Prior knowledge:
Blueprint: E1 2-6, H1 13-23, E2 28-31, H2 42-52, E3 55-56, H3 60-65, H4 76-88, H5 91-98, E4 103-106, E5 109-112, H6 127-135, E6 141-143, E7 150-156, E8 159-163, E9 170-172, E10 178-182, E11 195-201, E12 206-212, H7 216-225, H8 230-238
Parallel strand pairs: 1-2, 2-3, 5-6, 6-10
Antiparallel strand pairs: 1-11, 4-5, 7-8, 7-10, 9-12, 11-12
Helix pairs in contact: 2-5, 7-8
This protein binds zinc ion (ZN).
Amino acid sequence: MRIAVLSDIHANLRALEVVLATLGEVDAVWHLGDVVGYGPDPDAVVERLRGLGAIGVCGNHDTAALGGPEIAYFNVDARRAMEWTRETIAPTTREWLTTQPERRSESDFSLVHGSPRDPTWEYVTTAPAARLGLEFVTTPYVLNGHTHLPLVFRDVDGLVETITPADGSVLRLDGRPVMANPGSVGQPRDGDPRASAMVLDTERSELRWYRVAYDIAGTQAAMRAVGLPARLIERLDHGL
Ligand code: ZN
């Protein structure tokens, strides 16, 4: 099976469409949360994922969109965007978001937004944090998002190594514990403004990363049209 693994789409339909077209034929779509928030197209993105039969987990922005208390911890721009998201989303979007669990396991893979220890909030950016997360699950592999950074931690005989995947990078899954982050479709933060995504090939036991240019100006125009904060619009140019 070829499975698209998408995280932090953040209501960016243009980025999602180009990513899906680039990844090509897939047998399934797994998402790692933060489907909405920041971006201008929450309903269209959820509709698209629903149509694809995507399965996944909720992120902190998804639970905030449903009225959760997470919004209190957001910065001023994220909060304004979330208030707009809450007012905008259709009942069907709300319903779909409600069905997304905090964690999910699919064969050898645990899916979470932040980390297995704290699916809502923990940002896994260091090897020690990854090690604690890997100890928390019974599957060999963890797929997570939240940081918006394509990143891999692999336990090699008790030492956790850090790998920063680029476009086209391939990681072979050989049974050693791995925590892998596809990066963000809708709001990359590693200085590369292109959308980031991953494909899991279960027959070849490998993960492959993709970076995909999309119509950033189109997303920015849509954000401007609905009055989303200027700083959120600008950061898409820089991948920050
Ligand atoms: Zn996010």
